[in-house]
Amino acid sequence: MKIVVNDEVHEVSATTLAALIDELGYGGARIATAMNGSFVPVPLRDKTALNDGAQVEIVAPMQGG
Questions:
Q1: Under the phi-then-psi rule, with left for phi > 0, alpha for psi from -120 to 50, and beta for the rest, what region is 63?
Q2: Which CATH number characterizes residue 31's domain?
Q3: pTM of structure
Q4: Structural domain tally of the chain?
Q5: In terms of residue numbers, what domain contains 38?
Q6: In degrees, to the nearest 5, what angle opens at C-alpha 21 toward C-alphas 31 and 5?
Q7: How, if at all, do strands 2-5 and 55-59 pair?
Q8: Predicted confidence (pLDDT) per residue in 9-46, tens digit
Q9: What would the 3-class secondary structure string for 11-49 be?
Q10: Does residue 64 lie within any of the structural domains?
Q11: DSSP secondary-structure letter at 6?
Q12: Number of CB atoms found within 10 A of residue 45's CB
């Protein structure tokens, strides 16, 4: 299915947000996720189903002051 991740179209086989994170190589990284404009906490990623055309944001925290 085609989804948009951080404004880039991706063809993926993942069916959940957790599987997408692994498929894109973010597995184990400390990241924040949102789908279709709503924040998705870590415990809900494996229960959050992806749909064709989903808009996903993956953000890594930045250090600084």
A1: beta
A2: 3.10.20.30
A3: 0.91
A4: 1
A5: 2-59
A6: 85
A7: parallel
A8: 999 999 999 999 999 999 888 999 999 999 999 999 99
A9: ECCCCEHHHHHHHCCCCCCCCEEEECCEEECHHHHHHCE
A10: no
A11: T
A12: 17
- Side-chain-side CA neighbours of 16 within 13 Å: the count stands at 11
Asked whether the CA dihedral 8, 54, 50, 30 is positive or negative, the reply is: positive
Residue 64 has pLDDT above 80, yes or no: no
Q: Is residue 50 part of a domain?
A: yes
Contact by Cβ (8 Å): 60, 29: yes
Give me the amino acid identity at 13.
S
Distance (Å, rounded) from C-alpha 42 to C-alpha 36? Answer: 16
Closest CA to 18 of 43, 52, 53: 43
For residues 11 and 40, give the distance between their C-alpha atoms in angstroms, rounded to a whole number: 21
